[in-house]
Specification:
The chain has 266 residues and is α+β, with helices and mostly antiparallel strands. It has two domains: 9-212, 2-Layer Sandwich (BirA Bifunctional Protein, domain 2), CATH 3.30.930; 216-264, Roll (SH3 type barrels). The protein has helices at residues 9-15, 32-41, 93-107, 157-161, 180-201, 204-213, and strands at residues 22-29, 49-56, 59-60, 66-67, 74-83, 113-116, 120-123, 126-138, 143-152, 220-224, 230-238, 244-248, 251-255, 259-262. Strands 1-2-5-9-8-7-6 form a seven-stranded mixed beta sheet, with helices on both faces. Strands 13-12-11-10-14 form a five-stranded antiparallel beta sheet, with no helix packed on it. The protein has a two-stranded antiparallel ribbon with strand order 3-4. Strand 3 and strand 4 form a beta hairpin. Helix 1 crosses helix 5 and helix 3 (93-107) packs across helix 5. The model has no long low-confidence stretch (mean pLDDT 94).
Length: 266
């Protein structure tokens, strides 16, 4: 880990249990996903690793969006993992990552959190964390994935001014949040365990708990599809591949991608 005065490795180490990942902390990177994808694709990194950028200058979000963060109040990192599953058998991994984040934050007593399909972590219905899963290498029976996580740790008014959606952070009612080091350790503990279980057993091991923490299960949702059209209906289920089952216009449809708008925050 880095000797950067901005990162207290001993706090992180103190909270790590059964961690699979070699942790490397770098003062500044454009994007931890870009960095790790390049390392893994070129086989410079072959074991599970975690790259943390204390300052990420060009973070990427889902669907080509940007992910803004700052050097004091954000946690931005990526991990890589080789799954013994083809890429098509790994499509529900982002949902498992969302559950790992949910459980890690819950263990740190950060309350009022929920999951919005497929993998947004909301707090009081505002965005708290984002997940970007990308493929570095694949074979017929395996997929080596890079999983990037961005988490708003402390309150940042400047960041909010530059983002077009309401942001949440990890602070409690006294305005105090866990340190980035402790957050990372607890997140890695959960990811280590959940990746192993997902690899061996698949999404059905997680489905029930995912649905329990989903903000819109059995509720009316508006789903904006990649072509820009919107479907309104009842969220009825989540399938093994991570797709969502919606009842609308007297029929049931399965959607693999799209953006959910909750009625309550529409
Ligand atoms: C989203 O759009 O919700 C996903 C955001 C993912 C952001 C994280 S921050 C660390 C990693 N590096 C990136 O460039 N993106 C991900």
């Amino acid at each position: 880990m880095t000797k950067s005065p901005l990162w207290r490795s001993q706090i992180c180490e103190q909270h790590l249990h059964n961690n699979l990942f070699d942790i490397r902390v770098i003062d500044e990177l454009s994007s931890t996903n870009d960095y790790l994808l390049d390392e893994v694709k070129h086989r410079r990194i072959a074991t599970p690793s975690c790259i943390v950028a204390l300052n990420q200058t060009n973070g990427r979000g889902r669907q080509g969006r940007r992910w803004l963060s700052d050097s004091k109040n954000s946690l931005t990192f990526s991990v890589n993992y080789l799954f013994n599953r083809s890429l098509t058998e790994s499509t529900s991994l982002p949902l498992v990552v969302a559950l790992a984040i949910y459980d890690a934050l819950n263990a740190l007593h950060i309350d009022d959190i929920g999951i919005k399909w497929p993998n947004d972590i909301l707090r009081q219905q505002k965005k708290l964390a984002g997940i970007l899963v990308e493929c570095a290498n694949r074979t017929q029976h395996s997929s080596e994935l890079v999983i990037g996580i961005g988490l708003n740790v402390g309150k940042n008014d400047l960041l909010q001014e530059n983002v077009d959606q309401p942001l949440a952070d990890c602070t409690n009612t006294e305005g105090v949040s866990p340190s980035r080091e402790e957050l990372l350790a607890v997140l890695l503990n959960h990811l280590s365990l959940y990746f192993k279980v997902f690899d061996e057993k698949g999404f059905h091991q997680f489905k029930e708990r995912w649905l329990t923490h989903c903000l819109h299960f059995k509720q009316q949702v508006a789903l904006t599809l990649p072509d820009g059209s919107t479907i309104e209906g009842l969220h009825e289920d989540i399938l093994e591949d991570g797709s969502i089952l919606v009842r609308h216009d007297a029929t049931q449809s399965v959607f693999h991608s799209g953006e959910i708008r909750l009625r309550s925050i529409a």
